[in-house]
Specification:
There is one protein chain. The protein has about 500 residues and is of the alpha/beta class. The chain has a domain of about 260 residues: Amidase signature (AS) enzymes (Alpha-Beta Complex). The protein is built from 16 helices and eleven strands. The strands form two sheets. An eight-stranded mixed β-sheet has the order 4-6-5-10-11-9-7-8. A three-stranded mixed β-sheet has the order 1-3-2, with helices on both faces. Helix 2 runs antiparallel to helix 3, helix 8 runs antiparallel to helix 16 and helix 10 crosses helix 12. It binds glutamine. The site of glutamine has 13 residues, from loops. Glutamine (GLN) binds next to loops.
Length: about 500
């Protein structure tokens, strides 16, 4: 059961081979056993989870014609990144600032999965306010990579990735501002998808950089991600960036043959900077695609070297504005001892935020300040346009773009902490997608040095999630990387 696909779990539940309560208990017991080592979950609540599971079983009993009971996800458990507000469960965003915060409402995504009859297993660890690529910035401690507990799981959705890799949950939510779904998926051997900007509502998802943030699914396979995305996506009036588009079934094209698919290979994604082990595995995956009938064509994204610098102006600028709401008055932490109001603000923020968050707030405030705005923020926005235009040009020659997700396999704890720029470069292949608002995904395609998983990145045209999912699913029909699990964790 722990290695079953969502479709298999759905069938087992429908045929009464297992109940939602039994399934939730199976995963809760694994969490209890393994979470002390992995630290993937910040919050669990057995009673709440089992109450939801009982409700799912009850609904199935009384009538399968009910919309939720008819959903293929009904009764299947999943866990949420702790950036999504959940009514009645605390939502920390990995920060001391929100360590005791209990949201009065559910995020759109949480609501959607609840309406589909899914059962919440708990809240997943993450980098503080989703800032990081290694999960080391969490106030609740680092998450361990189940493939090698001396290594990071990636970030910021590191708890989501570690939980699925260790089979503590069959699926999870994640968010991706510069790579935070795809990079941890790659480092932990999973499939994760960042949708086109605007496809999934961010209502109730704690904001980091609003022009970049997107929610998406993380699971073992593309087929699972397609089912999850179908449930999460859709118009929501409560998020002004949510797009009013007809509902889509993201599973509809999974079985299309890949004959004639044109894969663009950006030369900038295959240059220096990528480790040789990653290169060899990615090249082998591309050979597999050629065997499946796809052709590859060289393309260029000439401005991609500017993506990390542009991102580290835009994302901190937006973060400095979004995080101004954490002032000790409205939400979460307030310093216990202070003088006047200004002192209360400054002590609260000094004590409540960690070092990386403070670094971003400082950079963001600087680049937005009078006199520097034109030199930094405006320039970065112009570069962003050029990056998007590069993709438009490249997509004239191809249907999807492929390359590595991360330049290296999972690194050891502490390896990149001394130099923030080294850490920022972990997202060199993922960030341009966010700047352009494009959909991207990562899927496991083999193992590199020290037997650590390697991810293949697929980038699609705007709103072409189904084509990426089709390409990923066809590859997963002829390979089994996605069903491998870390040894010793069974
Ligand atoms: N690692 C990047 C950062 O630290 C991206 C994070 C994310 O996608 N949330 O900003």
């Amino acid at each position: 059961m722990i290695n079953a696909s969502l479709k298999e779990l759905s069938a087992a539940l429908a045929q009464r081979k297992i109940s939602a309560v039994e399934l939730a208990t199976l995963f809760l017991n694994r969490i209890e056993r393994m979470n002390p080592t992995l630290n993937a979950f910040i919050t669990t609540d057995r009673d709440k989870t089992l109450a939801q599971a009982r409700c799912a079983d009850e609904m199935r009993k009384v009538g399968a014609d009910d919309a939720a009971a008819a959903s293929s996800l009904h009764g299947i458990p999943l866990a949420h990144k702790d950036i999504f507000c959940t009514q009645g469960w605390r939502t920390t965003c990995g920060s001391k600032m929100l360590a005791n915060f209990i949201s009065p409402y559910d995020a759109h995504v949480v609501e959607r999965f609840a309406a589909a009859g899914m059962v919440t297993l708990g809240k997943l660890n993450m980098d503080e306010f989703a800032m990081g690529s290694s999960n080391e910035t969490s106030f609740f401690g680092a998450v361990k990579n189940p493939w090698d507990v001396s290594r990071v799981p990636g970030g910021s959705s590191g708890g989501s990735a570690a939980a699925i890799a260790a089979r503590l949950a069959p699926a999870a939510t994640g968010t991706d501002t510069g790579g935070s779904i795809r990079q941890p998926a790659a480092l932990c051997g999973l499939t994760g998808l960042k949708p086109t900007y605007g496809v999934v509502s961010r209502y109730g998802m704690i904001a980091f950089a609003s022009s970049l943030d997107q929610a998406g699914p993380m699971a073992k396979s593309a087929e699972d991600c397609a089912l999850l995305l179908t449930a999460m996506a859709g118009f929501d009036t409560r998020d002004s960036t949510s797009l009013e588009r007809p509902a889509e079934d993201y599973s509809r094209d999974l079985n299309q043959p890949l004959t004639g698919l044109k894969i663009g290979l950006p030369k900038e994604f295959f240059g220096a900077g990528m480790d040789n082990d990653v290169r060899a595995v990615v090249e082998a995956a591309l050979d597999e695609y050629r065997k499946l009938g796809a052709t590859t064509v060289a393309v260029s994204l000439p401005n991609s070297e500017l993506s990390v610098p542009a991102y580290y102006v835009i994302a901190p600028a937006e973060a400095s504005s979004n995080l101004s709401r954490f002032d000790g008055v409205r939400y979460g932490y307030r310093a216990p001892d202070y003088g006047d109001l200004a002192d209360m603000y400054s002590k609260t923020r000094a004590q409540g935020f960690g070092a990386e968050v403070k670094r971003r707030i400082l950079i963001g405030t600087y680049v937005l300040s009078h006199g520097y705005y034109d030199a930094y923020y405006l320039q970065a926005q112009k570069i962003r346009r050029l990056i998007a235009a590069d993709f438009t040009e490249a997509f004239k020659q191809c249907d999807v773009i492929m390359g590595p997700t991360s330049p290296s396999v999972a690194f050891a704890f502490g390896a990149k902490n001394a130099d923030p720029v080294q850490m920022y470069l972990s997202d060199i292949y993922t960030i341009s997608t966010n700047l352009a608002g494009l959909p991207g995904m990562s899927l496991p395609c083999g193992f590199g040095n020290n037997n650590m998983p390697v991810g293949l990145q697929i980038i699609g045209r705007w709103f072409d999630e189904t084509k990426m999912l089709n390409a990923a699913h066809q590859y997963q029909q002829v390979t089994d990387w996605h069903s491998r699990m870390p040894e010793g964790l069974a």
